[in-house]
Amino acid sequence: MTTPYVDQIDLFNNDLQNLIYRYKSEYDLHDETLIGCIEASKLAVMDSLTIDFGSEIDLEDDDDNDEDKV
User: Fold this and answer.
1) Which CA distances in Å does 36 have to 3, 20, 26, 31, 44?
2) What 8-state DSSP symbol labels residue 48?
3) What span, in angstroms and rounded, lies between the C-alpha atoms of 21 and 13?
4) pLDDT above 70 for 59
5) Per-residue pLDDT tens for 10-40?
6) Helix 31-47 vs helix 5-26: angle between axes, to the nearest 10 degrees?
């Protein structure tokens, strides 16, 4: 049996909060540095979700066909 999705989110969030607390208490990192690292990680996750919405339709070719009809 797998863990329900909502519980997985809670576990991940708790682990992330514990990791942030640990680094704030053990090291002299500024909040800005921690936020920057979290943002960089967020962008890395988002980058893997990038979808190419480029069209393979040649729009210029459609214009040429319209001229032939005149």
Assistant:
1) 31, 12, 18, 8, 12
2) T
3) 12
4) no
5) 999 999 999 999 999 999 999 999 999 999 9
6) 140
Report residue 62 CA to chain centroid gap. 36
**Which residue ranges make up each domain of the chain?**
1-49
Beta carbons of 11 and 3 less than 8 angstroms apart: yes
**pTM for the predicted model, two decimal places:** 0.60
The 3-state DSSP class for residue 2 equals coil
Query: CA dist 60 to 47, 54, 55, Å?
Result: 31, 15, 12
Determine contact, residues 23/37, Cβ cutoff 8 Å: no
> What letter represents residue 58's amino acid?
D
Helical H segments across the chain, by residue range: 5-26, 31-47, 59-69
